[in-house]
Amino acid sequence: xxxxxxxxxxxxxxxxxxxxxxxxxxxxxxxxxxxxxxxxxxxxxxxxxxxxxxxxxxxxxxxxxxxxxxxxxxxxxxxxxxxxxxxxxxxxxxxxxxxxxxxxxxxxxxxxxxxxxxxxxxxx
Length: 124
Description:
By secondary structure, the chain is mainly beta. Helix content is 0%, strand content 50%. The protein has strands at 8-12, 16-20, 25-33, 40-45, 52-58, 63-66, 74-79, 84-89, 99-104, 116-123. The radius of gyration is 15 Å and the shape is globular. The relative contact order is 0.29.
């Protein structure tokens, strides 16, 4: 039986995103996968803390599954044609200025090399 090789990668479209308090901010990652990936995830990390799971997107169905409890100002969308996944933060606040990670299976706990940084910086 032959082995199949799956090519996969995910990376942020921008390393840093500037935002104004109260606006909606979109963080985006582009993924490469030889097929449609089973899921794409978003995490955030406060300084000195472990990454925190926010939500997961199922590209085949465009279903978004939120963490429990849900983070109310966060949502996601996927553009399968352009291989892009977005995290949308509504009513951005200074407390949202942390690191954000997009990941593709395997999850962050098993393989931290699949994480890429997207940080939100607030303009005053």
